[in-house]
Amino acid sequence: MSQFFVSPTRLSSLVVIAAAALLSACGPSAEQVAREEAMKKLEQAAKEMEAAGKRMESGAAKGGQDLGAAVGDMMKALGGVAGAASGAAGAASYEPIDFRKLKEALPQELDGFEKGESSGEKNNAFGISVSEAKQSFRTADGSKSVRFEVTDPGSLAGPFALANMWMNIEVDKETGDGYEKTSTVGGRKLHEKWSKSGQHGSIQMVVGNRFMVDVDAHGFEMEQVKALLSKLDVAMLERMKADGKKS
After folding, report:
1. Residue 89 — very low, low, confident or very high, per pLDDT cuts 50/70/90?
2. Mode of pairing for the β-strands spanning 114-125 and 211-218
3. What are phi and psi for residue 162, nearest 5 degrees?
4. Where are the domains of the chain?
5. Distances from the Cα of 28 to the Cαs of 20, 25, 35, 90, 105, in angstroms?
6. 149 by DSSP, 3-state: which?
7. More confidently predicted of 221 and 1
8. Is residue 96 within 8 Å of 104, Cβ to Cβ?
9. Is it the case that residue 194 has pLDDT exceeding 50?
10. What is the pLDDT of residue 69?
11. 155 by DSSP, 3-state: which?
12. Partner of 211 for a Cys bridge, out of 26, 43, 207, 244, CB 3.0 to 4.6 A?
């Protein structure tokens, strides 16, 4: 499925973020009613996509059993997302940035690390266009690895002001193995997770109310993972935040 579209889990996360932002948006009464209705549809679509994604994984593990039906369910869920997006009153839309351009915002070298897989893709299904670029690095002995990723959710970007999710929702959880929380760095809200046992840290950040930036690292302390954000050209993404806006 990943060759056809951005992974169900990732797209589902974008939908949830969109729904949260949609709820927090202000406007005239009629517009707010439309937004709330679109939010309900987005939340339902996210649940359906998550369920379909699990069925697809299960079907693939069983050698393709019931895989066709699961793919069909995913297509229906994507259609629901497209319908909800188009139903948002006054929503603007964006043509995703070419993934080759997004790659320019990713680091091309990292001191002490070997350059790994570099990939990018742009997909369109049921009126939803998404573009993403990835770059990975690892040490020669394999003890440390990091993946940088930038996603432009295109038609899910402008209408829902993605950053609003973490600007309006606070997360602060701790366990014996790590934590999950929202924080603010350089005026931008972050979502971060850390596992001590695996020395696995991840950070997500929304840039320009449009681009989703991910850093996922193994073998690092969390402060080091945070420092890796500076390796991305965030200023470049800020400059492109209005590119491709549809009239």
Report:
1. very low
2. unpaired
3. -50, -35
4. 8-90, 94-246
5. 18, 10, 10, 11, 38
6. strand
7. 221
8. no
9. yes
10. 62
11. helix
12. 207
pLDDT at 217 over 90: yes
Q: Supply the pLDDT for residue 5.
A: 42
Q: Is the pLDDT of residue 160 over 50?
A: no
Compute the CA torsion angle 180, 182, 186, 188 (nearest 10 deg).
130
Cα 209 to Cα 203: distance, rounded to the nearest angstrom: 16
How far is CA 121 from each of CA 13, 113, 138, 166, 224, rounded to the nearest angstrom?
18, 24, 22, 26, 28
Three-state secondary structure call for residue 131: strand
pLDDT of residue 32: 60
The pLDDT value given to residue 1: 39
Output the CA torsion sign for 207, 126, 44, 158: positive
Task: Place 105 in a pLDDT band, splitting at 50, 70 and 90.
Answer: very high
Query: With left for phi above 0 and alpha for psi between -120 and 50, is residue 189 left, alpha or beta?
Result: beta
Residue type, 110: L
Instruction: Fold for 94-246, please state it.
Output: Protein Transport Mog1p; Chain A (3.40.1000)
Alpha helices of the chain — where are they, by DSSP H?
A: 8-24, 29-61, 67-87, 99-103, 164-168, 222-228, 234-239
- In the chain, % helix, strand, coil (3-state, to 5) comes to 40, 30, 30
- What type of residue sits at position 5? F
CA-nearest of 73, 94, 91 to 37 is 91
